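job 3f2a | input accepted
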Amino acid sequence: MGANIVITAIAMATPIGLGTAQTCASVRAGIARFEELSWRNKKYEPFIMAAIPDNCLPKLVQEIDDEISLTWREKRMIQLVALTQAELSGAGIKQKIPFLFGLPQGSGMNQVDSNKILKYIAMQTDLNIDLDQSAAIAKGRASGLIAAHAAYRLLESGQADIVLAGGCDTYKDLDVLGFLNAESRLKSETNLDSFTPGEGAGFLL
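job 3f2a | predicted structure (205 res):
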């Protein structure tokens, strides 16, 4: 990035930290928070994942909680993003800013609706999001990096002075876990050659 483009704030929420400092300290200490869920896989073993405790997530505003078009996964992602807003609000930004939001890539029931999730994030948080200049980027694991690059382009072109970029994902969704389980992609006592799912959100201002 150019010398005149700087990171003014970092925010994250992960299973090992509810903020940037706590997450970084946990990483340095080698802490991992894997836990058994009450949900069971096809072998009737409990799903194991790294998750943020439910009681740490902010309560959804009533309109979002009542919105039947939002999936469980989408509502949880909105809560994960809202969990990061304290660190972002501390930057004291008053003007409306573009929000470039990286999303998981999926299809069918596993797909997050990028057209509406930004609106509900703006409703849930006090982040001053300029929805007209914002975009959701559903490119899976690369989404956060693509969002950061798009932010750089906005700043470099002078279309914006401040941009929020990052991403969020969660596997704590029974439909998603069931889909991965059916394809034998989740690590368990009987399937060691796979991965342990998690969740989190991270942003650069």
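job 3f2a | The helical segments are 20-28, 62-65, 72-83, 85-89, 114-124, 143-157, 174-182.
job 3f2a | closed
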